[in-house]
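Risk register update: the risk of archive-format incompatibility is retired. Evidence:
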Amino acid sequence: MNEPDWRAFARMALEEDRAHNDVTTDLLGDDASRRVTGRFIAEGEFVVVGLPMIRAVFAELGDVDVTTGRCVEGDWVEAGDVIATAVGAARNLLGGERVALNYLQRLSGIATETRQALQYVAGFETAIVDTRKTTPGLRALEKYAVRVAGGVNHRFSLEDAVLWKDNHWALLAASGRKLVDVLASAPGNVPVQVEVEREDQLRVVIDAGVRFVLLDNQSPETIARWARALGPNVTIEASGGITAENARAYAEAGVHRISMGTLTHSVAAVPITFAVDV
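Archived output:
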């Protein structure tokens, strides 16, 4: 995966916020140009991700120096830790603080959720994997946060891999065709993964020689049984209602990967404040 275009994301959000037309800060007149120091301060414990966005936001606004001290991307921070310091015109600091915070808080929340899930499966060779259940327009950033925390990215878009799911099974049944014949025409340069939700689908997948399966919405006990039927040469991913708290049971069932929509689609923003010293 490529590095996100931080400046492009910063420009988009600053335009949305009309950062160059802050009618409140403009009331300060000449004092809005006064050079001040602002600090991004953690108000809880979490994995911090998004430091490049702070630099990008203030680079777009201009005349702001950003330093992160000893804090680096992916660090675990505690309440009171200074994540980054920005020095520049008050107008620019106040114009960019909310955009920087919005990105930083969300990406750090995703990273923290990912890191916690990894802690639950510690000791197993089980990867924690994200999904396409991301915020529209922010997928590159959200998948970046998963990677920084130690997780693995699933396909970025529909063209990156074949993922045969429940609706594809339904369309296949209506067509009267066989799975093995359909998969034979898959592009040779992309992975092929088939989702299995029922015992009869499992049999079809085994007969078709599929080597990468997604066992969806199954209990750890069922997955352990199906894993034995699939054999040691098949990569097994589990999904469906899996959270950091129950991930270990799925790792114990013998899966190689656990995909979790909760990493991105409903994660809570972490608490960070921005305070200006005058």
